[in-house]
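Dear H.,

Thanks for agreeing to be a second pair of eyes. The structure we're designing against is below in token form, covering all 456 positions.
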């Protein structure tokens, strides 16, 4: 059986010299033959990508909106891989996948119970439905990492209360994993709610943990890993799960999986809404990358994820060498929360460095870190990280650990700090040293301005 039928068909057609009278001049770079920018296009995309950026429908590759051939076959293989009734390839981002999930299950006036920590795309979509929304509350927040933890006991209680009073929630929306690296036990929450009533539809955003289902150690974090077992206990289960494979698998950006578990009515509703709001001209290379990402994980996922887990283990051990850096590992007591094993929050508070100082050090070492708080930064040990990357990170952390800011926030100055020119003090003895003042001094020093420091 061909496990990558869509990709193979796409590559087959890219080798032919096909003239398209339909659309897309970019196909094979044909529209660039007189362009002075042709070289830039080829350097940026490559001749092979341009050859596969095509738009061939039925009778050629497949209809991207109503697939009946290789794309349909590919999505069915992916559905079997994730144990779902239907899997769709989405090329407009997980934002659109979440919109499809919401608009296919929620109507005006429906009561919806929502995990407060879901992505903005869910909140914005809900605001357009006219539904009656009730949000969960936070149980706590870990100050350094910025990690927030949802009060799921309260959420389950709200569902029970509404059901008992005769105005139940039609849909429950859960966030399986947060940007900051908190993994929520979504399946446990779903089971507790289904024990109250099975007449409910779930939407679960697994954006950050598409990888989890493919490793023996991490599969417990994905609801799809145990979905067959749960369906035998809850035969009426209706669930839509969205994933962002470009965050943790080898897929192109703006791609997502939309997984559906449920009856034919739910499947039809999801399919109809996808037709209404998804692009009718998706990128074929993006579609292909979703197929390849799935098969790459089927073949290599367990070992590759284990390599990343081993890197994290070694890195945790290495962190013990630093006196001024530590790993944020605090979570509330209970069964609802865990920390993503591939994402670590590192606390740099004891260095007395400002977050801008830390960013400068990372940038100097050509290390891109996306998530910062006042006292921490987040490291994602995704499948693209290797030992050489870790060695570069260690060099930056060594510098970070050994660098101390001359000024401590909210302490009292005992000196004049005078940039020259113009010779006007930015700090005088007895003045409280604020973050704003420190930022200004750092800016002046980075600009190579001469700084005079004279004791008061």
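And this is the sequence the design step returned. I haven't edited it by hand at all.
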């Amino acid at each position: 059986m061909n496990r990558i039928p869509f990709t193979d068909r796409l590559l087959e057609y890219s080798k032919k010299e096909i003239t398209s009278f339909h659309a897309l001049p970019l196909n094979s770079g044909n529209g660039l033959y007189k362009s002075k920018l042709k070289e830039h296009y080829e350097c940026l995309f490559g001749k092979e990508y341009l050859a596969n950026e095509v738009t061939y429908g039925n009778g050629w590759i497949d209809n991207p909106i109503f697939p009946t051939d290789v794309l349909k076959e590919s999505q069915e293989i992916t559905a079997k891989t994730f144990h779902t009734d239907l899997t769709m390839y989405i090329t407009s981002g997980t934002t659109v996948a979440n919109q499809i999930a919401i608009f296919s299950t929620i109507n005006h006036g429906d009561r919806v119970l929502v995990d407060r920590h879901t992505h903005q795309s869910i909140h914005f979509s809900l605001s357009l439905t006219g539904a009656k929304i009730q949000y969960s509350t936070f149980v706590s927040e870990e100050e350094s990492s910025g990690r927030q933890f949802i009060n799921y006991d309260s959420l389950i209680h709200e569902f029970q209360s509404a059901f008992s009073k005769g105005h139940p929630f039609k849909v429950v929306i859960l966030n399986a994993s947060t940007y900051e690296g908190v993994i929520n036990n979504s399946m446990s929450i779903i089971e507790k709610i289904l024990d109250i009533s099975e007449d409910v539809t779930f939407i679960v955003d697994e954006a950050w943990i598409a990888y989890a289902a493919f490793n023996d150690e991490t599969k417990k974090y994905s609801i799809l890993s145990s979905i067959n077992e749960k369906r035998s206990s809850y035969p009426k289960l209706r669930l839509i799960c969205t994933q962002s494979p470009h965050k943790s698998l080898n897929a192109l950006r703006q791609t997502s999986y939309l997984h559906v578990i449920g009856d034919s009515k739910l499947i039809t509703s999801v399919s109809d809404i996808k037709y209404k709001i998804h692009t009718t001209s998706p990128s074929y290379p993006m579609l292909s990358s979703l197929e390849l990402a799935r098969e790459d994980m089927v073949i290599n996922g367990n070992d590759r994820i284990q390599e990343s887990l081993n890197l994290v283990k070694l890195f945790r051990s290495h962190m013990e060498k630093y006196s001024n850096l530590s790993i944020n590992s605090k979570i509330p007591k209970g069964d609802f929360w865990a920390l993503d094993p591939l994402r670590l929050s590192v606390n740099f508070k004891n260095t007395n460095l400002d977050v801008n100082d830390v960013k400068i050090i990372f940038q100097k070492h050509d290390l891109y870190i996306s998530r910062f708080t006042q006292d921490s930064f987040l490291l994602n040990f995704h499948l693209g990280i290797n030992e050489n990357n870790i060695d570069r990170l260690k060099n930056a952390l060594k510098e970070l650990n050994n660098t101390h800011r001359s000024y401590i926030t909210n302490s009292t100055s005992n000196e004049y700090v005078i940039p020259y020119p113009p010779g006007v003090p930015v700090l005088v003895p007895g003045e409280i040293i604020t973050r704003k003042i420190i930022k200004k001094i750092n800016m002046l020093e980075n600009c190579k301005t001469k700084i005079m420091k004279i004791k008061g």
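Two observations from my side: The chain has a mean pLDDT of 93. The chain has 15 helices and 16 strands.

Warmly,
E.
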